[in-house]
Amino acid sequence: MKTVSKRALMLVLAVIMAAMCFIGCEKREANAVIEDIVTYHGCYDKQADAKVDELLNELSDIDSKQGELWKNIMDYWEYANTDLKVNIDKLPDNLSEKNNLALVVLGFELNDDGTMKDELIGRLKVALACSKQYKNAYVICTGGGTAKDNKKVTEAGLMGDWLIRHGLKKSRLIIENKSLTTAQNAEFSYGIVLKKYPEIDSVAIISSSYHIAWGSLLFEAEFMKYAMENDVPEIHVVSNAAYKTSNETYKESEILRWETGGMLQLVGNNDLAMEYYYNKYEKPKL
Prior knowledge:
Layout: H1 6-44, H2 49-62, H3 64-82, E1 101-106, H4 118-133, E2 138-142, H5 155-165, E3 173-176, H6 182-196, E4 202-208, H7 212-230, E5 236-243, H8 252-266, H9 270-277
Parallel strand pairs: 1-2, 1-4, 2-3, 4-5
């Protein structure tokens, strides 16, 4: 057997190190491009369409699967904020009557003492009506502890208790009580569904009217992203039902900013997401 020379061994190691560096750099570059795609759209909306298309092409050159995924996500983002129909008070009548459907009720910040605000109760009334409309659907309540002076309660826990008191069977109830943002609502709820409820393949979002597009986007984006990256069955947002509210806190531009923060959370950049959530970000140059 021939002895491998020290020079040859060092050459092989150099090639391996270079390949590892290339793979690592490629991953970082892909993530950076994705963050640019999200932030350019979030800052400029349609004015950035040409730039976003350019970035999507760049991403496809790095990773064709990620390029296709993010083209689909960006198409859905556009759809959610333009053509998505918001159904007031009830779901349409053409959804699945089986238990593969889940109604996802998004939480709302609690009062300081740990009681629910009227807007959250409004969402629950819509959810209860929808649960009677689709008697085999699961109901997912999602939201963590947001009461300043009462750390013992969570949004989802109180929501679930309210629904049970008003007639929902406990066997239909799913509680996700760790999330603090809409992005986490999506991520953590999906984790529970994958582990414990494999029969669920579609969800309907239930929230306030101004929050439907926002919530639908983050859930659908999380579903698409996780399914591709982990080779698991796809789940999709198929509909919605809204509590019509006079809440004018969130204007159109503000909703886009919060959507952007949520999308950045989904791609793993929590620090940048917080800059968008708290309106402390610097716009990229278009």
